[in-house]
Design brief:
The structure is a single chain. By secondary structure, the protein is an alpha/beta fold. The relative contact order is 0.09. InterPro entries: AAA+_ATPase, ABC_tran_C, ABC_tran_Xtn, ABC_transporter-like_ATP-bd, ABC_transporter-like_CS, ABCF_ATPase, P-loop_NTPase, Val-tRNA_synth_C_sf. This is ABC transporter related protein. Pfam families: ABC_tran, ABC_tran_CTD, ABC_tran_Xtn.
C-alpha cells in the first residue's frame, strides 16, 4: 500500500536551487535511508513532507488518512512532565479509556449492573484490548530502557535533562505513537552503540514506513531496503541497504562518465560531418546536413558529471616514538563522589589503533581528557612513551576561538607557515576563497569539525587522541578521515559510536564498563563476535587486565528466569481477558456477589501483572 507519493517537488532559497523535480513513492513497510552531502536538502525534503516547509513546485499525495511522525531538532516536549509522564502522553486515548473502565468497575462492584453500564464497559474493554491497553506501560518501559534510560531516571523531570536526553525522550515518544510514516532526522545522534542496536531492531520490525536521514552507515545497512541519494539538487533511488547503494553508485559514476565521453565523441563526429556537408554548398549536401542536424538536436544530452567537492588529506608522524606508546595504570576518576572511571588499566604499543566504546556517561571522553592532560585523575597514573607527542581532538571543539576567523585560527596555531601554505591546508578541508574569512562562531557543526581536523594535520603528532571525530561530518568526509587514519603511521586512540568507522580504523577495541575496561583484539565486528560467542562466556581480556570469564550458567539461568516470567505474564493476561468477558455476561453482572468476586480478582491480577512487567523489563 502506498503511504506517500511526490511528483516534481522543487525548492529554492533565494537564487539557490536546493531540490529540483523530486519524485518518489513510499510503500508500507519501506525503510528508506536519505543520504547526501551536508546542505544537500535532506532535512528540507522532510520538512516539505510534513508541511513545515512549502515546495515551490510539485505535489504530495497521501492516500487515505496517513499518520506522520517527525523527529525534529526541536523536541517539543512538555518540560513540566517527568520522563515517564511525557512518554505516557503518547497513550492519552488509552489512559482515558482505562480510567473510565476503572470507574465502571467500581460501579459494577457496588451493584450498579444496568444494561447501559455493562454495554459501555464491554465496548470500552474491546477498544482497550484492540489498542494493546494491557501492555502500554510495559511497552513504554521497554522503549525507555532500550534508548538507554535506567529505571531511576523515569521520574526525572524533563526540564533537568541534557539536550541529548531530551532528544531520546522525543524519539521514544514518537516510536510509541506508531505513525504509519516515521520521519527521523539523524536519530542515532546522542545514542550509544547499545541503544542504536536496539533502535535498529525496533525499526526492522516496525510495521509502518520509515524515512531516515543518517550518516550512520552501519545503521543504514541494518535497517534500510532503499536509499534516496540527494546530490546537486537531484535525487536518485537505489534498492538495497547502504553498502549495496555505495557499490551501485560507484558503478553508476564510472558508467555515467563513460557514457558522457562516448556521447561527446559522437556529437563531435556528427558535427564534423554536418560542417563538412555544409561546406560543399550543394543542395543535396545541405539537405543531408539539415537532416543530420535535426537528428543531432533530438539526442537527449547526458549532463556532464559534476565532480562533488571532497576532502583528501593525510596525517604523518614526524618522529618515531617509543615502542610502549601509552600505559594507563589503575586509573580512576570521580566527580562529586560519583565514580566515572574505575580502576582502568591498559596499554598501547606504537602503531596500534584502538577504539574506545561503552555506554553514554561511562567515562570515554573523560578518559581521553585525562590522557591529554586536560583533567586530573582521582587516582592511578598515565605514562606516555618517550618521544611520543599527542594531538587531541575534542568533540566539543573547545579549542576553537569563536571570535577568530578560520584563517586566523589555523595561522595562529602555526605562525611560521606562510599565508599561502595556511590557505592550501584550509582548501584541503574545503575552506576556499572567502570561506577562510568566516568567523568560527558562524560555522556549522560540520565546518567546525573540519577545521579542528585541519589544526591537527600540520603538527606531525605521532599519537592521536580523537573524541567522536565523525560527529557532524557527512559520509564523504568520514570516508576521507578513515582513509587518512588507515595510512597514519602513528598510534591512535579514538572514542566513537560509529561502528562503520571503527571497523575501518581499529585493530583493538577497549570497552569501558562500570568495573574498568575490557580489551578485545580486532575491529568492531570481531569484538561483537567475541563478546557474544557462547552467550558471552568468552572474553579475551578483562577488567583491570586480570583474565576472567563469566560463567555461561549465569546467562542460561537469566534466560530461563525471563522465559518463566513471560509465560506467567501470558497466563495472567489470558485470565484477565476471561474475567472481562465474564463481567460482561448478564448472568454475572446481575449477581452482585459474583461481580464483586470477579472485580476483586481482576484488580489483584492487574497488580500482579504490573509487578511481572517490572521484573521482565
Amino acid at each position: 500500500m502506498t503511504v506517500l507519493e511526490t511528483k516534481g517537488i522543487s525548492k529554492a532559497f533565494g537564487s539557490k536551487d536546493i531540490l529540483k523535480d523530486i519524485s518518489f513513492r513510499v510503500e508500507q513497510g519501506d525503510k528508506i535511508g536519505i543520504v547526501g552531502p551536508n546542505g544537500a536538502g535532506k532535512t528540507t525534503l522532510m520538512k516539505i513532507i510534513t508541511g513545515i516547509e512549502h515546495a515551490d513546485a510539485g505535489e504530495i499525495y497521501m492516500p487515505g488518512q496517513c499518520s506522520i511522525g517527525y523527529l525534529s531538532q526541536d523536541a517539543g516536549l512538555d518540560v513540566k512532565n517527568t520522563v515517564w509522564d511525557e512518554m505516557l502522553s503518547a497513550f492519552n486515548e488509552v489512559i482515558a479509556i482505562e480510567t473510565r473502565m476503572h470507574e465502571l468497575e467500581r460501579l459494577m462492584a457496588d451493584g450498579q449492573t444496568d444494561k447501559g453500564t455493562m454495554s459501555e464497559y464491554a465496548r470500552l474493554s474491546d477498544q482497550f484490548t484492540h489498542l494493546d491497553g494491557y501492555s502500554y506501560e510495559s511497552y513504554t518501559r521497554g522503549v525507555l530502557i532500550g534508548l538507554g534510560f535506567s529505571p531511576n531516571e523515569f521520574e526525572q523531570a524533563v526540564t533537568t535533562l541534557s539536550g541529548g536526553q531530551k532528544t531520546r525522550v522525543a524519539l521514544g515518544k514518537l516510536l510509541l505513537q506508531k505513525p504509519q510514516l516515521l520521519l527521523l532526522d539523524e536519530p542515532t545522534n546522542h545514542l550509544d552503540i547499545e541503544a542504536t542496536q536496539w533502535l535498529e531492531s525496533f525499526l526492522q520490525n516496525y510495521a509502518g514506513a520509515v524515512m531516515v536521514i543518517s550518516h550512520d552507515r552501519y545503521f543504514m545497512d541494518a535497517v534500510c531496503n532503499k536509499i534516496f541519494d540527494i546530490e546537486n539538487t537531484m535525487m536518485t533511488v537505489y534498492d538495497g541497504n547502504y553498502s549495496r547503494y555505495a557499490a551501485l553508485k560507484r558503478e553508476f559514476i564510472v558508467q555515467r562518465a563513460k557514457d558522457y565521453d562516448l556521447q561527446q565523441k559522437e556529437i563531435k563526429r556528427q558535427q564534423e560531418i554536418i560542417d563538412r556537408f555544409r561546406s560543399y554548398n550543394r543542395e543535396k549536401s545541405i539537405r543531408a546536413a539539415q537532416s543530420r542536424q535535426k537528428a543531432l538536436d533530438r539526442i537527449e544530452r547526458i549532463d556532464k558529471p559534476v565532480e562533488q567537492q571532497s576532502i583528501s588529506f593525510a596525517f604523518k608522524a614526524r618522529q618515531r616514538g617509543a615502542n610502549d606508546a601509552l600505559k594507563v595504570e589503575s586509573l580512576s576518576k570521580s566527580f562529586e563522589n560519583k565514580c566515572v572511571l574505575n580502576d582502568v588499566t591498559f596499554e598501547l604499543k606504537r602503531g596500534q589503533r584502538a577504539a574506545v566504546i561503552g555506554s553514554n556517561g561511562i567515562g570515554k571522553s573523560t578518559l581521553l581528557k585525562i590522557i591529554a592532560d586536560q583533567l586530573e585523575p582521582s587516582s592511578g597514573r598515565i605514562r606516555i612513551g618517550q618521544n611520543t607527542f599527542l594531538g587531541y581532538y575534542d568533540q566539543e571543539h573547545a579549542g576553537l576561538n569563536p571570535d577568530k576567523t578560520v584563517l586566523e585560527e589555523l595561522w595562529d596555531a602555526y605562525p611560521l607557515l606562510s599565508q599561502t601554505d595556511v590557505r592550501k591546508i584550509l582548501a584541503v578541508f574545503l575552506f576556499k576563497g572567502d570561506d577562510v574569512l568566516k568567523r568560527i562562531n558562524d560555522l556549522s557543526g560540520g565546518e567546525r569539525a573540519r577545521l579542528a581536523l585541519a589544526k591537527l594535520m600540520p603538527a606531525g603528532y605521532n599519537m592521536l587522541l580523537l573524541d567522536e571525530p565523525t560527529n557532524h561530518l557527512d559520509i564523504s568526509a568520514r570516508e576521507a578521515l578513515e582513509d587518512a587514519l588507515k595510512d597514519y603511521d602513528g598510534t591512535l586512540l579514538a572514542v566513537s559510536h560509529d561502528r562503520y568507522f571503527i571497523n575501518k580504523i581499529a585493530d583493538i577495541i577497549l570497552e569501558l564498563t562500570p568495573d574498568g575496561i575490557t580489551v578485545y583484539e580486532g575491529n568492531y565486528d570481531d569484538y561483537w563476535q567475541q563478546k557474544h560467542l557462547q552467550d558471552g562466556s568468552l572474553q579475551i581480556s578483562v577488567t583491570s587486565a586480570k583474565r576472567r570469564a563469566k560463567p555461561k550458567t549465569e546467562n542460561t539461568s537469566q534466560a530461563a528466569a525471563s522465559q518463566d516470567i513471560e509465560a506467567e505474564i501470558v497466563t495472567i493476561e489470558d485470565r484477565i481477558a476471561e474475567l472481562e468477558a465474564a463481567m460482561c455476561d448478564p448472568d454475572v453482572y446481575t449477581d452482585g456477589q459474583k461481580m464483586r468476586q470477579l472485580t476483586d480478582e481482576h484488580a489483584k491480577l492487574k497488580t500482579e501483572l504490573e509487578e511481572l512487567y517490572e521484573k521482565w523489563a
